[in-house]
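Lab notes, practical 5.
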Amino acid sequence: MSSGGARRAFVRLIDPAIDDLDRLLKLDPQIVRQVLKKMLLLERDPRAGAPLVGDLIGWRKLTVGDRHWRIVWRIMTDDVGNEIVEIAEVWAAGARSDADVYEEMSRRVAALPQSPTSIALADVVAILGRSAVGVVAAEEPAVAEPVPEWLAQRLRHQAGISQAEIDTLSAQEAMSVWEAHLTKPRA
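Output from the prediction step:
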């Protein structure tokens, strides 16, 4: 997250939740837009909504519309401490009772792999195209490749770069610094 600014979570959807959005899109494109706007709320406040209980402890829910739709998610943390809102389900409660919805979610949670693949909300919005007009999700920052140890050692010992400065560089930036050092005219 950005230092000094407001904290922001990254919203990601697992494959079954994207399938849920596809089904909702066929039923009513307007509800998909409402669901996406609720997901934007989770970027600012990943603890919005209400916690679930029973087999779903650790998961939360938001209702959309006239309480007919549910977004179910959990908060995870990535390797560098960013909060990841992992949306696992977007369900219609309409013809189903609440118990049926949560039984389905319990089955889905039980079947989840340890680290399910997920897609960033911004990418889902792009995939949905016109159905998501007016919905702008935050782009996730690219994960910078770390500086390889061999390069860090050369920068420290041969180029005289401090470890603190090396720690701020991406692998690409570090390689550029190393190349500049190698091509610098010698006195």
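Observations recorded by the TA: The mean pLDDT is 78. The first strand starts at residue 10 and ends at 14.
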